[in-house]
Amino acid sequence: MPEFPVALLLLGIAAGILSGMFGIGGGVVIVPVLVALFSFELRPAIATSLGALMMPVALLAVITYYRAGLLNVKTSALVAVGLIIGGVFGAQLQDALSLDNLKALYGAFLLYAAWRFIEPRKWLKLAPPSVLQDPVTDAAWYLLLTVGLGAGVVSALFGVGGGIVIVPVLVGLLHFDQKIAVGTSLGALLPPTTIGAVINDYNQGVLDVATSAFVALGLLFGALIGARIAIKLPSATVKRLYGIFLLFVGLRFLLGL
């Protein structure tokens, strides 16, 4: 039994709610909280997060999005294939690139994406509302593979879930509806794409399986809660909330928090 099992469950639930609402894995929440509030060293915190996310913690959320007609299995599968391949390349690039500069660039990208998602000028009624278009539900296979590749590289380089790349690209560049993008991202993240890193962390003694299991249990039910909240809200509201979330994540990358 790990220390603070109830607190770990609550952490998983909180991260899961954000996961179900925004299509992220949850590691961008789990890792800093484990370090700041649970006194974890960074490496075991990342290992705990990867161990939790290797389990099918988004399963209930994925089923919820699928039943609501907001998830195309083929689309998610293509992104997932790209994620796996991109993760391999990202791991090989770690030693060859200056991660500090890349983090700054990625943080700037997230701030730009946050601005696009929040649309403050429209929020404050300083600009005319956008013309409503039919939501996009699919894209060419090579575009979806490319999205997955990019997400996999970023995930491996920075230790964040691929959803933090998948959703902004699907919405911002491919013009997916926000909820469909979230469902697609969660479906792509469902396979155990982190299994190689998890086995390595376990063999090196930095992964406590019981701790990851408690976080994963919270993630499972938290993601279901988040999915139900997001599906009931208007897409524009979910998009704006996601923009606020990206704002905080982007500042964290830029400021090195």
Keywords:
13 helices; mainly alpha
Describe this structure in words.
The protein is mainly alpha-helical and 257 residues long. Helix content is 74%, strand content 0%. It contains 13 helices and no strands. The longest helix is centred in the C-terminal third of the chain and has 24 residues, at 209-232. The radius of gyration is 17 Å and the shape is globular. The relative contact order is 0.24. The mean pLDDT is 85.
Q: Which secondary-structure class do the elements indicate?
A: mainly alpha
DSSP, total strands: 0
| Straight-line distance between termini | 30 Å
Give the overall silhouette.
Answer: globular
Helix content: over 70%
Q: Which consecutive residue ranges, at least 5 long each, have pLDDT under 50?
A: none
Radius of gyration of CA atoms, rounded to a whole number = 17 Å
Helix count from the secondary structure assignment: 13
Strand content: under 5%
Largest sheet entry: none
Order of helices and strands: HHHHHHHHHHHHH
Overall average residue pLDDT: 85
Structure described in brief:
The chain is mainly α. It contains 13 helices and no strands. The longest helix has 24 residues, at 209-232.
Please give the structural blueprint.
Elements: H1 5-22, H2 27-37, H3 42-54, H4 59-67, H5 73-93, H6 99-118, H7 120-123, H8 141-158, H9 163-172, H10 178-189, H11 195-203, H12 209-232, H13 235-255
